[in-house]
Amino acid sequence: MNYRAVVNVLGKIMFMEGTLMILPLIVAIIYGEYDTLIAFLIPIVILVSVGLAFGVKTPKNKMLLAKEGFMICGLAWIFMSAFGCLPFVISGMIPNYLDAFFETVSGLTTTGSSILTKVEGNPYGLLFWRSFTNWIGGMGVITFLMAIVPQGDGQAMHLMRAEVPGPKAGKIVSKLTDTARILYILYFILTALEIIMLMFSGIGFYHSVVTAFATAGTGGFSVKDASIAGYHSPYVEYVVATFMLLFGVNFNLYFFMILRKFKAVLQDTELKVYLGMVVASITLICINLLSTGKIAFETAFRDSYFTVTSIVSTSGFVTADFEQWSVFSKVILISLMFVGGMAGSTAGGMKVTRIVLYFKQMIRDIKQMVRPRQVMSVRINKKSVDNSILKGINTYLVIYVFILLASTLLVSIEGESLVTTFTAVVTCFNNIGPGMDGVGATSNFAHLSVLSKIVLSFDMLAGRLEIFPMMILLIPSTWKRRV
Amino acid sequence: MNVIVIGAGKIGKCLISSLREENHDVVVVDIDEQRVDRVVDEQDVNGVLGNGTQCDTLKEAGVENAYLVIATTYSDEINILSCLIARKMGARHAIARVRSPEYVNQIDFMRNELSISMMVNPDMSVASEISRILKFPTATNYETFANGKIDMIEISIKEGNNIIDKPIYEISQIYGNEFLICAVKRGEEVFIPNGNFIIREKDNIYITGIHKQVVNFLKGMGILKDKVKNVMIIGGSKISFYLAAILAKMSIDVTIIEKNSDRCKFLASNLPEARVVLGNSADHKLLIEEGIDRCDAVVTVTDSDEANFLVAMYAQNLHVHKQVTKINEPEFFQLYEKVMGESAISLSQVTSSTIVKYLRAKLNANSDQIRNLYKLMGGRIEAIEFITPNDADYLGKPIHTLKFKKDLLVAAISRKKKIIFPNGDDIIEAGDSIIIVTKSKSIRSIEDIFV
C-alpha cells in the first residue's frame, strides 16, 4: 500500500472541495445571508489547508495500483461527505452531525433522501450547497480531479475505474484527462440547457439552477417542501422529467452524437432497452392510473412520465404521491429502482447493461442445457462479452443481494413496517431518494435511528461507487503496508 | 497527435511509453485481450481488441484521424499489410517493423509505390549499435554527430580515476577544452553539469568531442581499452546474424554460440567467416572451451534477459574487457547498468528512439531541422542535433546573451569543417549543426531550446 500517494490524491480532492465551496459562499453573499458566511468559511479554511498540507508535494513513488485506486475512491467520498456537511452543522441548519453527514452523503451520492422535515425557509446559500453536492457527485469527484489535474500514466486508470459506474470503464478518447474533460463539458452543456429551459417557466434563476443541478446529478434534492410539485407547473415537470431521462443515458453516446456517429447510438442495445423499459413502464402505469377513472389523461400521463423517469434515472424528484397508486404500479416502480439508468450516466442502480447481460446469460445457460456441446457466447452491441466481465457482474449481483439483505436486517431493528424497512434500503442503495410507506414520497428519513442512518449512509456510498471501493475499505488486509 | 500502435509486445509497449512521454494520443491494437488490458492499465492510452489488418479494427481505433500508424507485431507480413490498409484508410504516415532483410531491401519500392513512410528493423539497428560500441570498447555507449565528426561517449568513473573529486573546469584545464562533459548520472539522478560540477566515483559521464581528443582524454586517464579483435556472441538470433556480418567486414573474429542445431546450420552456411558452435550458454565448460576468457568482448543477445545478464556477469568475472548485453526489461536494464558498470542495449529502446525521432522531425514545421536524436541514460536525457535555419533572431549573437532553458547545454557546434565547443563568446550561425544535451523531453525544434 502506497500510503503517501493515497494521501496526496486525497489532499488534492480536499483542496478541490474547499474551492468548490466558494460558490455557495458567493450565493450566500448575494442573498445577504451574512450570518451563514462563517459556516462556509470555516470548512473552506480547513479543506484548503488540509489540501495544501498533503496535496501539493508529489511523493517520490507515485505508483497507484488497483488496490490504491479503490481505496482512494472510497476514502475520497467519505471525506468529502465528512467535511461537506460542516456548513449545515456550523450554521445550525442541521445541528446534529450525523444527520448532516447523512444529508451530505445523500447529496454527493445523488440519492436525494433527506432528513429535513422542512426545506423551505432555510438560507439560500446552504440550500444551494445542498443541491450543488448533487451536481458534484453526479459525474464524480475523481473524474473532476482528472479533468483539472492530469494524473501520471499508469495510475489514473485505476482511479477512474473505481468511480465510473458500469461493468467496464472505457475511455472515449485516448487520454484520460481529455476523457474526463469531455464528460464534464457534456455534463455542463446539458445542465446549462436545462437551466435555460427552466428559466422560461418563470420560476426564477435560483430555482432553475438548483433544480437543474439536482436533475443533472440525478440527485433529486429540491428546495421546495413538495419537491417539483411545489412549483405547480406542468411545464417544469415536463422539462425536469425529460432531462432526468437524458441524464440517465450513457454520456459516451452524447459524444458519439457530436462525432456524428448516429448509427452507433441508434444501434446501442443498452439505449434501446433503457428507452423500451421507460416507455413500457409509462404505458402500464398510465393505463393503471386511468383505470381508476378519477384523473384526466394528461395528468395521468404527466404523473407516470415524471415518476417513471424520476425512479429509473434514480433522481427521486416527486410530483405525484405514488403512495396512493395501486400495488401494480408500485411494483413496477420498485423493479425500476433496481435497474437504474445506463452505465456511464449519472444515474445509480444496477445499470441497464448489467440487467441486459444477466438476461442474455440466463438465455445462454438455458440453451446450453439443451445443447451441452454447443459453444455459445454472450453478445452485446454485436460484440462478444468476455467471460471475466460476466464473472465480474455475477459476483456483483451476489454481493449486491447480500448487502441488501444485511442492511435490511439492520434497519429492521427500527421496528418500522416491512415496506418502509425494505424500500428505505432499496432507495438508498440504488441512490434514488424516496422509498415507500414511512419513507415514501411525502415523508423523509429524519425519524430513523442512529444505526439506520449509518447503515443507509454506507449503502448510499456503496451504491454510488458500485460496492467494491467500499467493500475494500472493510477488508483488513487492505490497510496492511505490504502485499 | 493521434498515433495507433499495432501490437502490444515488448517493442509496442516501450514505444507507447515513449509516445506518451511526448504527450501523443495513443490507441493500441492487439489480438490478445490480456495484453491490451495490461497496456491500458499501465499507460494512459486506449485499447482496441482485434487484428490490425482488419478495416473494422482500424476504424474503431480511429485510423481516419490518425497521424501515424506503427505496426510492431512479430510478423513482417502483418505489419506491412496493416500499414498498407491504414494508409489507404486515411492515416497520414505508417511505419512497419520489418525483420527480414528481403523486405528491408525493398524500402524504396515500399515508400514510393506503397506509401509506407518508414520501415524499422530493430534487430538491424541493435546490431549496428553494438558494432559501434565494439569499435570503441572503452565507451559503454558510443554515438556520433555531424556525420561522424563528433563523438559522444559514455564512460563510468571507477575507483582510482584521476578526475574523481575534481570540478569540471579543472578537468578541462588538464586535458584541454576540445571536449565537454555534458551529462552525468549519479545513482538514480541525472545532471547536466556546469563548470563547477564535481565528478565523483561511480558516476557515469557523457563526453562529447572530436574523436582524437576524446581518445587522448581517455588515454590520459589511463582507461583506454585496446581494439577489439575477437568477439564471442552468445545466441544466434537475428541480431547476432546481422552483427556477425558487420563484424566480419571489420575483420574481427567472431564465435557464435547457439543452442538450436537448425539455426546453427543456417548461421554456418550464411556466415562463412564466423565460427558457429552448437551449445547452451549456461554450459560454462563449453564457454571456457571456446575461449570466452581469451575474447576481447562478449556480446550476449539471446532472447532471455536473464541468460544475457548471467553470461555477461560470468564474462566480467573472467576479466573479459568488454561486455555488450541486450536487455529488454527496463527495470532489469537499470539494474544491469548499476551492477555491471557497463551499458546494456534494449531492442525496444533503440526502436522507440528511432520512431520518436522520426515523429518529432515530421511534426516540426521545418521538418529537416532535427538531424539526430539519441536518448541517453535510460531515456532521461536527450542529445539532439539541429541544423540552424537561414534566418532567425538568435543567429549571430554571442551565446552568453541568449537565454537557454534550464538543464540544457549546447555541447558542440559544427560549422563546415570546424568543430566548436562553445564558450560564452561563440555565436551560432546559419547552417550550423548544433548539438544540445537536455533533460527536457519537449524539444521539438530549435526555438524550443530558448526560454
UniProtKB/TrEMBL annotation, chain B:
Q: Which GO terms describe its molecular function?
A: potassium ion transmembrane transporter activity
Domain spans labelled RCK N-terminal: 1-116, 228-345
Q: Which Pfam families match?
A: TrkA_C, TrkA_N
Coiled-coil zones: none
What domain of life does the native source organism fall in? Bacteria
Could you tell me which residue ranges the RCK C-terminal domain spans?
140-223, 371-451
Recorded protein name is: Trk system potassium uptake protein TrkA
The species this protein belongs to is Ruminococcus bovis
Q: Which gene encodes it?
A: trkA
